[in-house]
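Tip: read the tokens left to right.
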């Protein structure tokens, strides 16, 4: 659950309105020292040029690229650990969480001035079934001398730009239900990669399960099962992964304070083991209103990918605003993602 809502915190309507007006200023005061430790790139620093890639040695890029990028502003603030998350964008992380998830989530992310990604996710319940719908879109520019460089090296390379117009898209449909106390789900997605005049797409499957365990939820998912993409003479590989996660909470620490967390360990297709996790601390001054700060750590896989991420959130009743930051390394610009959630 992502709501910092607790009974017994009622106040008058005038005090609610006053708190809503001042909360952005409170969030700014909390956020500035929180993000100060990040080593931001020095002004005027330019990324190093990429070395042209070759597929003659049999190496393959992993794609479509959009399947390797974050799909949630809230979760990006916690190192993109989402296997046990229960928001509207759960359909992108684990279909086994759909019976617990509710609502709609929309977010967008800029990689410098050269690339933009966005996502839309929605989860609704119809009888015993939970249905999830989602779409992800990435538009970027690649290097003509290295057309798969951005795809091969992931998010950090997207801000470099180039002369080749490229796009990556995915559309997801998921279903799930509870069977003997275990949430079981599956989703099908159509994912496509376009690099200038060449493109390829196909269908991939996700399967997942989850079950409440103690104060949080234990979840498992296998993602991106299907045939590999082939961009003309550039062979590729789906970013298949197996993930085990444990998260949830928003448990009361003491009056006006709640704590939540998300953790996971993923095993990538090539055997790379990637742990990730984060926490969110919420201050609830009045019923239905919360200011949240988030922080996460992960094992970087891509070159110049940051070890740490962070974020901020503002919840007002069933509406949530989220912001997350990825301080890319190697002189690349800091990347921001913003989103809204409705439950």
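Filled-in amino acids:
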């Amino acid at each position: 659950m992502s709501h910092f809502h607790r009974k017994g915190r009622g106040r008058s309507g005038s005090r609610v309105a006053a708190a809503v007006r001042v909360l952005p200023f409170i969030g700014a005061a909390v956020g500035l020292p929180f993000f100060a430790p990040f080593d931001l790139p020095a002004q005027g620093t330019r990324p190093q040029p990429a070395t042209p890639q070759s597929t003659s040695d049999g190496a393959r890029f992993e794609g479509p690229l959009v399947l390797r990028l974050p799909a949630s502003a809230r979760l990006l603030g916690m190192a993109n650990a989402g296997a046990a998350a229960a928001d509207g964008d759960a359909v992108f992380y684990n279909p086994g969480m759909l019976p617990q998830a509710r609502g709609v989530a929309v977010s967008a992310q800029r990689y410098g001035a050269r690339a933009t990604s966005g996502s839309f996710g929605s989860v609704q319940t119809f009888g015993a079934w939970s249905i999830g719908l989602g779409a992800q879109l990435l538009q970027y520019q690649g290097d003509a001398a290295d057309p798969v460089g951005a795809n091969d090296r992931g998010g950090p390379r997207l801000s470099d730009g180039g002369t080749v117009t490229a796009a990556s898209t995915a559309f997801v449909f998921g279903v799930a239900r509870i069977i003997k106390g275990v949430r079981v789900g599956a989703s099908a997605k159509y994912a496509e990669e376009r690099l200038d005049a060449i493109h390829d797409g196909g269908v991939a499957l996700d399967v997942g399960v989850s079950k409440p365990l103690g104060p949080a939820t234990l979840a498992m998912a296998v993602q991106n099962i299907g045939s590999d993409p082939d961009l003309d003479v550039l062979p590729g590989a789906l970013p298949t992964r197996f993930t085990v996660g444990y998260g949830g909470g928003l448990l009361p620490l003491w009056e006006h304070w709640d704590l939540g967390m998300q953790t996971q360990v993923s095993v990538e297709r090539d055997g790379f083991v990637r742990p990730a996790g984060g926490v969110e601390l919420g201050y609830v001054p009045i019923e239905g209103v919360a200011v949240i700060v988030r922080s996460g750590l992960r094992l970087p896989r891509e070159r110049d990918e940051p070890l740490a991420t962070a974020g901020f959130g503002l919840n007002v009743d069933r509406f949530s605003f989220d912001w997350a930051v990825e301080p890319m390394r190697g002189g690349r610009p800091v990347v921001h993602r913003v989103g809204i959630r409705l439950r």
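Residues 13-49+58-342 form a domain with the Porin fold (CATH 2.40.160.40). Confidence is low (pLDDT under 50) at residues 1-59.
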